[in-house]
Each structure stands twice: as structure tokens, then as C-alpha cells.
Amino acid sequence: EVQLVESGGGLVRAGGSLRLSCAASGFTFEDYSIGWFRQAPGKDREAVSCISSVPGRTFYADSVKDRFTISRDNAKNTVYLQMNSLKPEDTAVYYCVRDCSDPDYWGPGTQVTVSS
To answer: Taking the C-alpha atoms of 17, 71, 63 and 112 in order, what is their torsion angle to the nearest 10 degrees?
Structure first.
């Protein structure tokens, strides 16, 4: 059974940092791109970042470029999203997905709240 489980969300002040983790299981992790989406209340879901299977090409939404960094550890079947210089507009539920181009599995999400 394919599973994606996010962790690391929480409440942080503007300018602070958080690191999200996505632990994957049930499939050959290194064969898939893994990405992060987010959804804020009343807004559409937004693609935030993605990392390819190999050799680790990355994508970032303009809104997070130069602040967020995505990485993966294939030995641990885990993808990380380091979020720095957080802004109140980053407040959302963050979801981990398998296959960035056509997500077929989603994690349950982790809440990130940035206070001003």
C-alpha cells in the first residue's frame, strides 16, 4: 500500500523557519518524483515544489523561490522541504504527493501557520 505521511508543520512567527518531512512507503521511492502542494483557506491548491527521481532536478513556485529548498534522501524514502523566511501568506495545509506531473497519491497534509 502506497503511503505518504507529512510531518514538521506548526506555528511559527514571520521570518522563522520550518522543515517539513514526507515519509514514503509501499513503492520504489527512487523511481518517482515527489512534490509539495499547499492549500490555504478559500484558495486554490498550489504546487509549491518538486524534486525529480534522479538526478534531483527541482522546481519551485515563484512565491517560494529563494526561500524554500527541497531535497530527498532515497536511503530513508523521505523528502524534505526546508522553509525559511516564512511569511503569513505561506499559511496553508501542505501536502506531499507522488509524481509531480500527475499526482496519484497524496498525504493527509500538515498545517503550517505563520503569524505576523
So the answer is: -40
